């Protein structure tokens, strides 16, 4: 039997290049070797978007199409909706009994996200989302979790929670391993923070050729470089980072040309936009094929959710037995 892989995305918007290099590319490569579960994280979306439930349905559809467009194969992998697996909520409640509030408050990603969002007082669901994420991984006993860098503190916390469960009750769970992609944290077009759906600094996987050119054109570069002949500082330029990620082999020449003031930003941007468009082209083709099959995304998500539910029920039987909650 294959080991399981689980990962997911908040249904808060389109998937972007950060998702691709941080996690999606790995998922596609691993889906043959692992029994893979990809979760449309609607409950986790609500931790910050509880006032906009009307946005979830469209984003569920959008993220599913993004998955299919990068090459996730619904015949091999299971795509499912988080809120339709009530066992995840149940596990979250049990795990919550032995996770301290302080350990959550000190989680560096929780701290960073709370300060970005300006939360002075933390919502219970937001603070506890590493616990709910542990339940996501645990319900299907996943052993590997492909994620970006921001998820590493949560993975550490998940391992601790599952270890503790095993010590307290019975050895039901494995300790999952995080697998980080080629680029653990892709910088956004603003050059200030990671590319992120909620920051509007993304290049989305469904962007048209023209949109990619326009977005790259507007992206920040080295502010000290005014004329083409000024020596540039590629290390602080998001465009240079994209060269190292998407045109790795040629990036040495870009670095030199920029530093020596021989390569202008306009030319440099045109090269990276062309490479990104080449990367996105097969994704667009796959997306179009899937879009032509009406109701297809809905059907695969429904089937995936049913499969996930069966596995969740099996795990809960073991959990209830371990916790002596098997009354009848
Ligand atoms: P939001 O702003 O709504 O939180 P997001 O863009 O951060 O959205 P998530 O759904 O939170 O996306 O993250 C899904 C997965 O993609 C996680 O494993 C995360 O680590 C990874 N990821 C997201 N952004 C990047 C990035 N810029 N670079 C690398 N990995 C990323
Ligand atoms: Mg995020």
Automatic annotation (TrEMBL):
<dbReference type="Pfam" id="PF00579">
    <property type="entry name" value="tRNA-synt_1b"/>
</dbReference>
<keyword id="KW-0030">Aminoacyl-tRNA synthetase</keyword>
<comment type="similarity">
    <text>Belongs to the class-I aminoacyl-tRNA synthetase family.</text>
</comment>
<keyword id="KW-0547">Nucleotide-binding</keyword>
<dbReference type="InterPro" id="IPR014729">
    <property type="entry name" value="Rossmann-like_a/b/a_fold"/>
</dbReference>
<protein>
    <recommendedName>
        <fullName>Tryptophan--tRNA ligase</fullName>
        <ecNumber>6.1.1.2</ecNumber>
    </recommendedName>
</protein>
<dbReference type="InterPro" id="IPR002306">
    <property type="entry name" value="Trp-tRNA-ligase"/>
</dbReference>
<keyword id="KW-0648">Protein biosynthesis</keyword>
<dbReference type="InterPro" id="IPR002305">
    <property type="entry name" value="aa-tRNA-synth_Ic"/>
</dbReference>
<keyword id="KW-0067">ATP-binding</keyword>
<dbReference type="GO" id="GO:0004830">
    <property type="term" value="F:tryptophan-tRNA ligase activity"/>
</dbReference>
<dbReference type="InterPro" id="IPR050203">
    <property type="entry name" value="Trp-tRNA_synthetase"/>
</dbReference>
<keyword id="KW-0436">Ligase</keyword>
